[in-house]
């Protein structure tokens, strides 16, 4: 692609062009502003180069020589990269009259390239830094066969259709705007309803699982964050402190120290352990505006956070319970496929090697006891302890990081938390951080994409829409509405003076699972005529039968 662009626009400068997990791209510095209209022409040129079948030739040369080469070729970005490298020798690849700095490997020749497609163009700062020049990036994908390429293009189409940012607007669930600020979410009534249902479910299940529910403030003294080590290790994700009556305060990036503070409010005995504190805790973290993405990457979000204080011996049982809990919660939302990772001790860590060993073993034993398949991420644990990450697979097979279970040897030490053992002496408890959904914002984004906005009934913002055929039917329709609302079903009524076909389309667009159509016959029979959002017609049903059916569906979270 870079060769084709260079042939078509000889004045462009080459920046970088890596392969990624999603395909490939190349960044160009160009007078000509690329648009998607340019892509067919570039593809045509690429096909020409492929036809030439010129071999890729690898050359190794001293870095100094490469600098001179790219200076001669008028490629300042390559020269800049080379000057910063420390290698004595570098490699360049060339085919025909095109030369690029590259580690390789490459195909034997251009003719080996089979199926490809250029997808889009976008602006990108040189080295991702907004103080640098804005370059132009062209994205593409390549496959061994046309069939694989076409499958992938269909997948991308499906991804676009499910984009939660578009659906969030169409279904009136949430918005993010410049006036409030980037990365800060406004939940509209319909989205807030879904979130509230999730929160109520979360709360009920946590109480059943013997968690204590906490509420904690959004700001705390900066000194607290010094003690926890956040000021040293986490500063780049934190906002600037604010001053109140001469003292510095910081908006919270995490909930952990607050829960520790509650733990420390009493003398704790071994009989109190394990102690489980949970909170839907809203935190704020600094993210560059360039990486923000709808609900998936935001600046303010609510974690479904919990901290378990226990003894080392209790880790395994606690982790087993958390694993069961996680899988129950995730599967309740329709996620049945997971990728599980166990991350072990990194090079830099706190705590003792023996402690790490014990905790890592406890995590491993818990996974094995539950018969869960997992992979090991060697050295990928956080500096403070080993962890288990669970990624859910959505209906397109995409994996999303949601749940995490992390053992922490750091905070108990730094914040000096203790419990009185049976030996009447003080001991250090272990702290386990865990989140099942991760953050409500992100989880909601994933849910929207997984269901393409057509939530299961128990989560739907409106579960039943009552549609009247004419004004004569409004009286009875309102009785139906009152009956459903009285039974705890989220229902609304469309009594506008519109044709029934139009009302059906309107409710279908909002992906309301059930529509009750009320006409002459329904008024006479005190019944409802039921239609589903996928177009299926259940026909006339007694009002009580219909209500019972929906209640069952909500209860079963089907
Ligand atoms: Zn925590």
**How do the strands of the widest beta sheet line up side by side?**
11-15-16-23-20-19-17-18
N- to C-terminal distance: 48 Å
**Main sheet attributes: strand count, strand direction, barrel closure:** 8 strands, mixed
**Helix-residue proportion:** 25-40%
Based on CA atoms alone, the radius of gyration comes out at: 29 Å
Which structural class should the secondary elements be placed in? alpha+beta
> How many strands appear in the DSSP assignment?
28
- Mean pLDDT across residues: 95
Task: Sum this structure up briefly.
With 558 residues, the protein is of the alpha+beta class.
Characterise this structure.
The protein is of the alpha+beta class and 558 residues long. It is 35% helix and 27% strand. Strand 19 and strand 20 form a beta hairpin. Helix 6 packs across helix 14. The model has no long low-confidence stretch (mean pLDDT 95). The protein binds zinc ion. The site of zinc ion has 4 residues, from loops. The site of zinc ion (ZN) has 4 residues, from loops.
